[in-house]
Amino acid sequence: MRTSVVYSPDHALHDADTGTWVGITIPSEEVPARIETIVASLRASGREVVPAVSHDDSILKAVHDSDFVEYLRGAYEQWVDWGYLDDPGQPQVTAYAFPTQRFLAPHPLRLPASPGALAGVFAMDTMTQIGKGTFAGARAAVDTAQTAADLILAGSPSAYAACRPPGHHAGAGFFGGSCYLNNAAVAAQTLRDAGLGPVAIIDLDAHHGNGTQQIFYARSDVLYCSVHVDPARGWFPHFVGHADEVGSGDGLGANLNVPIEPGQGDEAWLQGVDTIVEFAQIGDAAAVVVSLGVDAAISDPESPLQITEAGFSKAGERVGSLGLPTVFIQEGGYDLATLGSLVQATLDGFDDARGF
After folding, report:
1. How much is the average pLDDT of 57-61?
2. Which residues are catalytic?
3. pTM beyond 0.85
4. How does DSSP classify residue 263?
């Protein structure tokens, strides 16, 4: 009964090895070794590893705009066709112009011919580039998430989806933050389409899941709640993730953000976890999707927070206390030395609370 692991080796097809941060090319931390390390640790602990199953695009296009999906599918080939591999010699699709609201107003958006400008229509940053295998890898992550949701629908009480690239920064029509397609949104929509609901998405990543929030912001059948470092203190995604973002229209009151100060440890973070778990409970959630980022760990030199392995275990216990069918979706976490143990601790805490 311990939480099983869903895995696809095709995640490694996505290997965009650099990004551009404030004009400087830097190595990407979102590397294939992340998932290989996690899965090896979980496999060694005795957990069952289930292969991901291919699915069609129906659920994917229920949470993403069709034109956005098709853009991602063909972006690299268009880049190659325009000769950008040779001139200017850029091996990955990289946006250089962005049609912001202030720039366009009062004119309508017209899609540009240039691939470098077209990328700016769909990209939210310059760090998240598209390589030869990016779409295939992101599509495999979606299949991993959907397979984990399928296991729940078949009667499993829980499943962990070893998704890579991550997804919670990707919105209905945009990518960024190392995310291309929203795996958590796909899992939640899969559960909803099968009649489970409301579904609560509990986001434990160090950073706010702006894409997931955007997808479900006006819906009441999917609750989004997140504890994360305060974006107002200079942290990604900067523009959203604030406490006053509570949903709109039918989704008014179905969104909860709990920003916390940078540098906080287990006590403040777990108080936030308690708040969002209670939000899911009060909202009468019938199932849970956990966006599990472990990039808040004290062991991660880039972490904005200081969460211990014991803290992650206790967070898993809090989620397990809900007693609901639960899909875990891997989001952030970049310290290869501790990734496996942090994910393991979270799942162990969850399983212990459920009596598995």
Report:
1. 96
2. 169
3. yes
4. T
